[in-house]
Fold this sequence. Notes:
Blueprint: E1 19-23, H1 32-42, E2 46-50, H2 63-77, E3 80-84, H3 106-126, E4 131-133, H4 146-151, H5 153-178, E5 182-184, H6 195-204, E6 211-216, H7 217-223, H8 228-235, E7 239-244, E8 246-248, E9 251-255, H9 264-274, E10 279-282, H10 291-308, H11 328-333
Helix pairs in contact: 1-2, 1-10, 3-5, 7-8, 8-9, 9-10
Amino acid sequence: xxxxxxxxxxxxxxxxxxxxxxxxxxxxxxxxxxxxxxxxxxxxxxxxxxxxxxxxxxxxxxxxxxxxxxxxxxxxxxxxxxxxxxxxxxxxxxxxxxxxxxxxxxxxxxxxxxxxxxxxxxxxxxxxxxxxxxxxxxxxxxxxxxxxxxxxxxxxxxxxxxxxxxxxxxxxxxxxxxxxxxxxxxxxxxxxxxxxxxxxxxxxxxxxxxxxxxxxxxxxxxxxxxxxxxxxxxxxxxxxxxxxxxxxxxxxxxxxxxxxxxxxxxxxxxxxxxxxxxxxxxxxxxxxxxxxxxxxxxxxxxxxxxxxxxxxxxxxxxxxxxxxxxxxxxxxxxxxxxxx
Length: 340
């Protein structure tokens, strides 16, 4: 009897050194085990696992037992993993991404800190190569009259950055103990929105070894003054996790490959040249309604783009303080209505 082909045949191996994964925040209509099986069948190297109520809920009972079960399944399927913490309503059913590390209420901030510390422990149990996080949107705190507010802008901003650094300190301590990097993501509209902002935080914290960077390639296209490939080269020394999708300049909307403005071969060429060893994870959080379709389409696109890249030596990474800073005009022009 002639063997029947798999409904999801494994993609052909390619000679490039990059390892591709797909984010479960783009597969929320699937059970986690079904999502993992799908990605393995399609030929992905790993998964960007977002802790959420439908996928390894970090707040539900029996977390340790459930984590061990997922770890066994990842091992069986040969999938690497990065742990993502960008679930929209995992902590508060009424506030998207709330509470954040910037929440004015110390007790509310502590809830986000607790989630991130839990994520580090889960990452350790899963053998994840990094834990992703972001700063949050600066809170709107009134400071009196308009004139007083203008005068206090700088001091308020400094205080907000200090709040972020203090909130992240126990998370970094946990990451250091676990030997797993915490990879903070510059996010459009957030306090930490650009590569320059990452370096501001890194300097404020004293450049701890555990603090790394999540670079979202679409975000680079959206608002960074450098090209996405140049962003990769500039970020290389701190790069611990990569998210990838298409995007247009000035509009924060995660798009399937080919629907935006990014030329991907130079980006993947730059990533390969850095010697980056982590996962390159497709990030389509608004496409879960057709998640299996986009997962199937995305991997061949990335493999073709990677194989089309011509290897060359990496340029010297831009040191903090060198090169252009993000344009305020671009930042102000970014659409906030389509954030993940």
